User: Fold these one by one.
Assistant:
Number 1:
Amino acid sequence: MEATSDGDRPWQSYHTVYTNAKAGMEGVDKEKVQKIIYELSEGSKYFENEKRKEAIIKQKIDNLRTHHAKLTEKEITHFQRIADNRILELEASRDLSKIWLHIDMDAFYAAVATLENPSLKGKPLAVGSMSMICTASYEARKYGVRAAMPGFIACKLCPDLIFVPTNFEKYTYYSELTRNVFSKYDPDFIATSLDEAYLNITDTCSQRGIGCEEVAVELRNTIFQETGLTCSVGVAPNRMLAKVCSDINKPNGQFILPNDYNAVMTFISSLPIRKVGGIGKVSEQILRDVLGISTCADMLQKGAVLYALFHQCSTDFFLSVGLGLGGTDTPQQKMRKSISNERTFSATNDESILFQKLADIAETLSKDMQKECLLGRTLTLKLKTASFEVRTRATTLQKFVNSKEDILIYASKLLRAELPLSLRLMGLRMSHLDDDDKHSPLDPMQKTLTSFLTIGNVAPIADKSADFDASDIQLSVRDYVAVSYGNHAESLNECPKTRNKYESIEKISDVSSLFDHKGGVVASSSSSSRIIVEPYWVGGYICSQCGIEVPASFTEERRQHLDYHLADMLHKEECRSLLQSFPHKESGRKKQKYIPIDAFFVKGQKRF
Ligand code: DCP
Ligand code: MG
C-alpha cells in the first residue's frame, strides 16, 4: 500500500483485493476506483489491516533482497544445476494425453437473481448488502464494482447500482442443475464451488469421436437450456491451464488451448503470473519486486535464484507454472471428504452472541453431515477477528461424531480458549471423515494406537534440501499466512456457506503460504527430544506425510489435509505420553515430554 510514500496521491499504490481486475473490468478507470476506495476506507480496520499486511510483506521482500544480494557465484552455480535437473524431471512428467475443461458460471449469484427477476436484465446489479457484496453483474463491473467489496464503496463507484439480497437456496438449486449436466460429461467431475468445476473430457471426446471444441459448445448450450444461465469454459491439457483459459473469453465464451507442446509454451510465455491459480497479490508482489518476474516464462529463467531463496516445493511449483504443467489426474475422492460451514457477521465481542452463532453453525454442520451419513473426528474452528486476522484451531476427538451436541462441546472449548475476542467470522470444519456405517465410534483411537505401536515414531523427516537459514523471514511469513486466508469468498454478510464433500475448495487463494517452508519446523513438542515438522508438499503436490497427491490449486483441500495431519500428530503426542506410563513398551526410547492437547489452542498461538 505504501500510502504515505506517494505524497498527494497516496491511493495510487493502494492495491487491495477490491482494486484487482476481474473479468468484465478491463476498461475500468483504475485510478478513480483506487482513489474512491482509498478515501472511503482510510482509517478503517480494513485499512489498518492492509497496512499491517503490507508492512509484513515489505519486510519479507527486504529480507529476500538482502539474501539475494549475498548469493555467491558458487551458490548460484549450485542452484542452477538443481534448477536445470528439476526442469528436466518436470518436463519428463508432462502429460498431454488428457483433456481438461474448466467451467465457471458467469456472474453466478447476479445471474440467478436476474433469472428470477428479468426486469434486472442489463442493469448494474450487486448481490449482497451495504456492508458487503458477493458479486456484481457485468454492467456493474464496468464501474469497478466487484465481489468482496463493501456495498457503500460500490454505491459510490456506481450510484445507480441495484442491490439484491443473497438467496442460497436458489444458488444450490441451480448449481445442482449444472452438476447434473457435468456428470454426463465426466461422472467424476471436481466441483470447486457452487459455480465452478473441472471436467476430464478425454473419454467423452474419444467415445463420441468429437473434438473438445464441440464438447465445450455443446456443454455450454446444454447448461443454458437446463438453467437459463450462461457460463464460460476453458479447455487445456491440465487443470491449471484450463482454469486460466476459462477466464479469457468471459462472459459466455470459451477458449481452447490445444494439447500440443508448442501451443502450451507459446501460451505460457507471455502469461502474467497473476493469472495462475495459486499466485495471488502477495506472491506476485514478492516475485516481481525481488526477482523481476512478471510472466510465467520468467520463472524458468530465474530457477536458480528461486531455489536459492524459496523452499523446494515452492520453487517446484513455480517451475511447473513456467512449463505450463498442472494436474492431469483426478484426485482421489477421499481427499474431498471434509465438510464445513461458516458465517460472516458484523464484528462483535458479545460472548453470548458468539456462542449462539457457534451453536447455529454446529447445527447446520451436524444436519449436513447427517444428510450425507458422515461422521467426523477432526474439528477445526476458524475465526476471523475484527481486525481481519484469521486463526484456525483444530482438535482430534476420541470418537467419530456428527451430532450438534457433540460438535458444540468441542467447538465451544476451542472458542473459549480464544476469548475475549471481537469476531467477524466463525466457521467449523469437520475432516477425517468416515461413513457412519464403517466404524464403531471407538475404532479410530484404537486404530491410531495400534498403528503407533506397530509403526513406531511416524514423525516426518525434516527437510534438509537447503543450507539456507530462513529464520529471518519465517516469522513474518507465518504472520502473513495467518492473515492472508479469506480474502475471497469469506466476505459474505451473514450468509451460510456449506461445502460438501464434492466441493473441495471455494476459490484458489495465494500460494504465498508455500513461501514459508524453508526450514519450516513449526511445532516443537519438546525442544530436546523430538521435533514435529509440518507436512509439506513434495514436488509441489505430494504430501510428505502420507504420499497422497493434492494439486497446488486445491488450496482448501491442502489446508484440510494438513489440519488432519497436525491434529493427528497432536493426538499421537497424547498416545506417546500415555505409552510412557508403560515403561516396558517404551524401553530404548527417549523420554518424551507430554504436551496436553489444549496447549496447542492457547490464545495467540498460531499454527498456520
Ligand atoms: N462469491 C462470493 N464472494 C466472493 C466471490 C464470489 O460470495 N468474494 C460468490 C458469488 C459469485 C459466486 O461466488 O456469484 C461465484 O464466484 P465467481 O468468482 O465465479 O464470480 P461470478 O460467477 O459472480 O463471476 P464470473 O463471471 O467472474 O465468474
Ligand atoms: Mg463464476
Number 2:
Amino acid sequence: MNLTNINTIKDLFARHGFAFTKSLGQNFLINPSVCPKIALGAEKSGVLEIGAGVGVLTRELAKVSEKVVVIEIDETLKPILAETLADYPNVEIIWADVLKTDLRGLIAEKFGGERISVCANLPYYITSPVIMRLLEERLPLSSITVMVQKEAAVRLCAKPGTRNCGAVSVAVRYYSEPKKLFDVSRGSFMPAPNVDSAVIRLDVRVVGGLREGRAVPYAANIDEKFFFKIVRASFSQRRKQLANPLSSELGLQKEAVKTALEAIGKKPTARAEELTLEEFIGLYKNIKEIIK
Ligand code: SAM
C-alpha cells in the first residue's frame, strides 16, 4: 500500500470514516521523497515519533530502526493504523497527548534508557513546547529530526549574535547543535497548509561527548533557571539596549548591567541579538557575581 498516493489515502479515509481535525495540525505527508530523508535521522536502536497520522513516516522509521514508539493523540486513526502498520511488528503506538506524557518514563520503559532519536513531522501548534521539552528534560536523546514551519526553522536554527535570533534560538543552541536540512513545499502535504516547511536536525549536546562527532555541552555548573531568566528578559524588549530590559525585568541597576557587558567585551549599548551564546554565558556569570 502506497501511503503517499492520494487515492490510496482517500480510500483508507472513506473505508474507516476518517475526517481531518484541523486543530490537531493534521497535514499528512504525501511527497514520497521526504519521509525516507527524515528517517535518516533515526537511531538504529530506537526512535520515538510524535504524531503518526496514517503511518507514512512511521513505516520508513520501522525500516531503519529496530524499535519505533509513536505517540498519537487522535484515536480515530486507530483502525487506519491497524491496517497500515499491520506488517510492522516493531512499531508500538501510544495513544496519548505528547505534552501530557512522561517521556523520560516512556523511554526508560520502552528502550531501557538507551539513547534514541526523535523523528517527526510535528503538529505545528505545539512545535516549540515539544522541542523545548525534549531538550530541557535532558532525555536520553542523540538527535531530533523534525519537520517544522519554515519560519520556525529559521528561528530555531538562528545563531545567537545574528538578526533572526531569539530566546528560543539561544536555548536550542545551548542544548544542541541545530541545522536546517531541507525545505519542503506546502504541496507536499494533504491537506496543503498555508505555509511552507523545513526539516531541521538538532544534535543533542551530551555530557562527556561519549561518541566521536557528538556535540558536547557549552559550559558546566550553570544555574539554568537563572541563565534562561536572563536570556528571556534580554529578548523581552529586543530592540532596546540590554540594560533596559535587564533592569526592568530583573531589578538590576542599569549601570551594573553595563559594567557586566563591558566585562565580556561588549559595548554598554549592546542589544540581545548582538550576543553570542558564549557571551550570554559570560554575562550571566558576571550578573551572578554582582547580585551575590
Ligand atoms: N507523521 C504523519 C505524517 O507525516 O503524515 C502525521 C503528521 S501530522 C503533521 C501531526 C500528527 O500529530 C497528527 O496525526 C495529529 O493527530 C498528531 N498530534 C497532534 N497533536 C498531538 C499531541 N498533542 N500529541 C500527540 N500527537 C498529536
